[in-house]
Amino acid sequence: MSAYDPDFLDGFLLPLPSFAPHLDENIVRDDDLTEHYVADYVHYSLVMNGAPERRSAVYVALNVDQNKHKQTSRSNRWRIDSRIGDELQLDNAYYRNNDWDRGHMARRTTAAWGDNAIDAQRASNETFYYTNACLQHANLNQDEWLGLEDWVYGLNLDKDGKISSFSGPFYAEYDRSVHPSGHALALVPAGFFKIVCFVNQANKLEVRAFVMFQDEKALADKSGRRKYNNQTYQTTVTYIEELTGLQFEPEVYHANPMSHCDSSTHTRGPNSVNGEPVLTPELIEVAKPTDIQNTSGPRQTVKDDVVDIFISAAMVNPKGSDKGNEWIGLINLGADAIDLTGWCLSDNQDNAVAVGQVTLKPGESRVVNQLGKIRLANTGDVIKLHDDQKNRIDWVNYTEKMVKSGSPVLFLSPRDTLELDV
């Protein structure tokens, strides 16, 4: 069994990404590493950032053959990689007695494949190196984030079950930090990226790129676009390059269906996809496999940065019976009155309910308490708002830890939220 193989996908060469100059100067280099900077493991390879305040993987490149997956046991025995050096890795002290988990970059169950059970178990065990872990908040939906390769496979888009992926953290200007007693300070990533590559059934390379934020305040968008923590967004490879300082081969971002900028001007701004205007670079929330945007088929029109109606709160776990006591709150934070006739709310299973015939004036709110088939799961769910043309106006998600009995889940910051009349 070998490390990451750039020839893994039939007919396509996917070499490891290179580095922008500001990133290159922090790459860990040692004679014991492949080409003096790549650490190889079973099915995956990684490169380390040696900046004293980071000491995390720059990226992890993984090959997956989903036809050879085997059931394996979880080792949970985390180890220091002696090739990198103790001082360049975040050991267990950084994950003890706080809100930060050892987040796998190469997912254990995804890497657990081989010709037999012994090989698969070895591959599973090889994911438990601190070099393969990053500070990841306990609230982050790891099942959703780490399972993106499975989502692509489940859509039956690939021709042979083989996938190559690139994952890693990204940082911002004002990151949070962890400072264990007796250890050097380490910055917490503002979020994570994942790029999934496969060959489709027409023998063409396809790519899906994703980011998830765990500190949206550290990544204030100059255009004022809203981002939510613990939410997976499908996006462009170029956007990931801007966040990380990585440089991928042109074939990788050309095979991605998401739009980054107007190709004639190479600047950010309005663009169009299938004749519909989009704000670029595209950031579209995904919460299940069918949400993923593809190269063919209808594209979802997203207007959550254009129309100022927001899902402000939801009573997910009311005291007493859920039926008839759950509700979803909407608010108009724009300058114009907006007619909501024909609009609907839906959950992640696409159960829908009409908002009703109502016009919200600026600053007005409305509570929808006749939710029909929608059941707000206490374990976490997604709530979507669409207008009468089926354009998506807003999207929120919540986790089990956000749900409190008798208290609404709030989706807007206190300074934006007006009191709801319920």
TrEMBL record:
Annotated protein name in UniProt: Endonuclease G, mitochondrial
UniProt organism field: Paraglaciecola mesophila KMM 241
LTD domain ranges (all copies): 288-400
Matching Pfam families: Endonuclease_NS, LTD
Active-site residues, record numbering mapped to chain: 104
Keywords annotated in UniProt: Endonuclease, Hydrolase, Metal-binding, Nuclease
Superkingdom of origin: Bacteria
A molecular function GO annotation: nucleic acid binding
Positions of Mg(2+) binding: 141
InterPro entries in alphabetical order: DNA/RNA_non-sp_Endonuclease_sf (IPR044929), Endo_G_ENPP1-like_dom (IPR001604), ENPP1-3/EXOG-like_nuc-like (IPR020821), His-Me_finger_sf (IPR044925), Lamin_tail_dom (IPR001322), Lamin_tail_dom_sf (IPR036415), Non-specific_endonuclease (IPR040255)
